[in-house]
Amino acid sequence: MITPSPTSKLQPGQARGILEAIVAETATRPGHIVLGVPDTSYQLHLLPTAAVGTAVGGRLVGTIRATARRIDAVGTGGGYVEPVAGRPRRVQGRVLSVDGGVVVVDAGVPIHCTPTDPRQTAATFEAGQLVSMDVLDGATFTPAG
Predict the structure, then answer these.
(1) What is the pTM of this model?
(2) Alpha carbons within 13 A on the beta-carbon side of 60
């Protein structure tokens, strides 16, 4: 949990967390950040789309974006991101909103998911629906203004 507990409101769809690490680029992997999500064990490895002006251990607010292979409606289950530590590979949760071609999913943390299957569009889904998807490599984090 973030201590002290945050009291500031977020824009819908924004994620809040702690910057756990900034990992430098290597020959086989791009540079990324490790975002710790409050009240979970998540340590998400995300590619920053802009400079992160927070020191390690500091609070971060921004938008997580991912590209989904296919988004499927499911009947049961809860919200989660797999794996708990690493780059997101599987996401499941309730649809918070549909904005343009993006489905915003609450999977313990809001994730903006863009479907890539040509047979479906974001408009296929509606708020409150439980969905599940595989996520392509390259999930990003855009720090809030």
Answers:
(1) 0.91
(2) 30
Tens of pLDDT, residues 61-108: 999 999 999 999 999 999 999 999 999 999 999 999 998 899 999 999
Helices and strands counted in the chain (H then E): 0, 11
Task: State whether the Cα torsion 23-24-29-31 is positive or negative.
Answer: positive
CA distance 112 to 59: 20
What span, in angstroms and rounded, lies between the C-alpha atoms of 86 and 2? Answer: 20
Which residues neighbour 84 within 8 Å (Cβ) at sequence distance 6 or greater? 40, 41, 42, 43
Residue 5 has pLDDT above 90, yes or no: no
Question: E strands along the chain, which residues?
Answer: 15-23, 32-36, 43-48, 59-73, 80-82, 85-86, 90-99, 102-106, 110-115, 130-135, 140-143
